[in-house]
Design a protein that fits this description.
By secondary structure, this protein is an alpha/beta fold. It has one domain: Alpha-Beta Barrel (TIM Barrel). 34% of the residues lie in helices and 23% in strands. It has 7 helices and 11 strands. Strand 8, helix 6 and strand 9 form a beta-alpha-beta unit. Helix 1 runs parallel beside helix 7 and helix 3 packs parallel to helix 4. The chain binds ligand LARABZUK. Ligand LARABZUK binds next to strand 2, strand 7 and strand 9. Pfam families: PRAI (PF00697).
Length: 201
């Protein structure tokens, strides 16, 4: 069954929405001030404490120090870290030394070389994306036949999910903009997106 991640939760009611529709993962964008979905580590703690224990909390980071990422993993605030910056193999090796948490490395896929780099990642999973929370799709032809389990992200929502699953067979789909209305999470869109994945699976 294809896993589902709903990313970019910022408010207690967003957590209530995912608790209601139960995706497999949810994401908090932590310490990324340029993001409108940014939350502080303390806010992430409060939101994660409200989360259904059956949903895996993921921290989304951009070039955060390994010690700060490991602290949130080792405290159990998050169970996985999604790395969305320029983190390289040495960064991941050091992070692995500090924590046993699951690591997801995000790649912006704009060329075949990007997909090749992603395939070599030392992380547990890779996430193929157009950017980070942009609501835009990348050229899916670049992910056809991708050789390891991956999260598919970028411009996904209830309307294009079955096409994505049919073509690319990802391990998981990750949605943020596509389950928002006027910049905030929309429970009707979350319900529709989760149902679309479950229906297909
Ligand atoms: O959401 C953000 O603002 C963000 C900022 C910086 C790095 C990552 C960010 N988001 C990651 C995600 O929300 C998802 O992994 C993915 O990019 C979803 O994108 P989309 O559904 O296209 O909004």
């Amino acid at each position: 069954m294809t896993r589902i991640k709903i990313c970019g939760l910022t408010r207690p009611c967003d957590v209530d929405y995912v608790n209601r529709y139960v995706p497999d993962y949810c994401g908090f964008v932590i310490n990324v001030p340029r993001s409108r979905r940014n939350v502080t580590p303390q806010r992430a703690r409060e939101l994660a404490a409200r989360l259904n224990p059956g949903i895996v909390p993921v921290g989304v980071f951009v070039d955060e120090s390994q010690s700060a990422v490991a602290r949130l993993l080792n405290e159990g605030v998050i169970a996985a870290a999604q790395l969305h910056g320029a983190e390289d193999a040495s960064y991941i090796k050091e992070l692995r030394r500090l924590t046993a948490g699951t690591l997801i490395q995000a790649f912006r896929v704009a060329s075949p070389a990007d997909a090749e780099r992603a395939a070599e990642s030392l992380a547990d999973y890779v996430l193929l994306d157009s950017g980070g929370g942009t609501g835009e799709r990348f050229d899916w032809r670049l992910a056809e036949g991708f050789k390891r389990p991956f999260f598919l992200a970028g411009g996904l929502g209830a309307e294009n999910i079955s096409d994505a699953l049919e073509r690319l067979r990802p391990f998981a789909v990750d949605m943020s903009s596509g389950v928002e209305t006027e910049g905030v999470k929309d429970p009707v869109k979350i319900e529709a997106a989760v149902a679309a994945v479950r229906r297909y699976s």
